[in-house]
Amino acid sequence: MLGSDAVRHRPTVRAANGAVASGHPLATAAGLAALQRGGSAIDAAIAAAAVCSVVKPGATSIGGDVFALVYDARRREVLAYNGSGAAPRAIDAEALRQSGYPAGGALMATVPGCVAAWTDLMEAHGRLGLDAALAPAVGYAEEGFPVSDLLAAAIARDAERLAADPECARTYMPRGRAPRAGEILQQPELAASLREIARHGTDAFYRGTLAGRLVEGLVSLGAAMDGGDLSAHSTATPDPIAVEHGGLRVFGQPPVSQGHVLLEELAIVDGLDLRAMGWGSADLVHTMVETKKLAFADRDAYAGDPRVTGFDPMTLLDPAFAASRRKAIRSHAADRADAGATPVAAHTTYLAVTDRDGNAVSLIESVFSAFGAATIVPGTGILLNDRLRGFSLDPLSPNALAPGKRPVHTLNAVIALDGAVPRFVFGTPGMHAQVQTNFQLAVGLIDYGMDVQEAIEAPRWFHESGRTLQLEDRFPEDVRRDLSARSHDLHLLPAWDGVTGGAQAIAVDENGTFAAGADPRREGIAAGY
Description:
Blueprint: E1 13-15, E2 18-22, H1 25-36, H2 41-55, E3 65-72, E4 77-83, H3 93-99, H4 114-125, H5 130-143, E5 145-146, H6 149-157, H7 159-163, H8 166-172, E6 184-185, H9 188-200, H10 202-206, H11 209-220, H12 227-232, E7 241-245, E8 248-252, H13 259-269, H14 274-277, H15 282-302, H16 306-309, H17 314-317, H18 319-326, E9 347-355, E10 360-368, E11 376-377, E12 382-383, E13 414-418, E14 421-427, H19 434-447, H20 452-457, E15 461-463, E16 468-472, H21 477-485, E17 489-493, E18 504-508, E19 514-518, E20 525-528
């Protein structure tokens, strides 16, 4: 375990009035400025999220989705917002089952939920208004911003795919090539769309003149989505789900988010003395990896849009069920894990914000694959998601593709309460790594009492399938040997490998001050005042 005097890549940011930790320095700056102007945590979160949709197009867009947990200090409760959309009503699921998913294109987009979620969050919890919150994003889209090293590399890596769409090529490679780090990238059509949203909110995107341009463009691109799909969309506000762990109440997103996977992992290990195993030990890593396998098996067996399948995640969080799953952990690595018998009943960015009044936001947004569908709707600057790929093409799966159904999302965000007040706000991008990295963060923060930056920078593991276990090479040799002896097939990752995500976290101390951290594995940054 790292000690309190350990050398870190980044310092813990400590502040008394508010803190922002986001996936991009410009987004963090925008969020911090909103707090300093008297805005709430929601004002800051939307300002930061909107900037991310401009400066991180490989990860997010207003053509994508948002999930958020909000701690409302006045109500002293956690609220959940599900800003994800459904498959178009005209989608031909059988044809796709026969042909398989195409590599990209407008056909792969589900209804974007981002704009509706921003508007609803602002109306419920904001102070400055949507126009003020979106102003920094409009400015960066209109006037341009210096391309970051990671964005330059991402565009170069996907240059062939982006070049296949004329709008993407014109937008992201305006000089006929991938931009170099530091070159200015402008998106004037996106700026115009953001201005219209700033003035008219949800109506502009789903029913107004911007919606008309979207539909016209979607038709020209051969999309299944139409105006009826857009106008029918609304943000879901289900009750959040939670488990008790280490004396805290840990809240996650309900379906269609995979937040229940993290909570099931915590419910399973809650009956074990994790601290006695030792941080970073083979005992701890093995136990957590095998727990992950069990929770993912249950996800695959049961999770689907509750509106269609009736899936109740609380069956997976039931203490008796968690105890039965705990007994399934073996001393050696399992090649696979079967689902438990429950009772009957890509590319992403994350940000955390806290304000001086005690409000907190845990927000994550995505376009699914890198640059989503790699398709921009002509005349709008709006990059489409390819979230349809989140459905299974197996008709027997609870997550099977169907018109009007929402796919299961890897997106999840976390807030942990100590009594009735926030203690930790954290999350990460990373597709299927999300609930694994969040699991490691939760155990580090809650069970081991780590500082947020310490927990973020600790060596990580990542499991996809079978006995193969990806492990950062910063784990000591004796730990690696022990894991190998337990039948894990180790694949060493370079130190600080981004496959495990790019986490952000904020802790609220007992005296009400904030400690914020950001992951050196990506380009996020934390700040406060």
